[in-house]
Amino acid sequence: MLDYAAPPPAGSSADRRMYQDESRVLDFLALWNDDCATLRRAIEDQTDWGPFELAEMTPAFYDVFGARRILCRFVFHGDAETRAPFERDLRRRLAAITDWKDAPQAKLVDTPRSENTS
Question: Which of 33, 42, 60, 113 could make an S-S bridge to 71, C-beta 3.0–4.6 Å?
Answer without folding.
Answer: 60
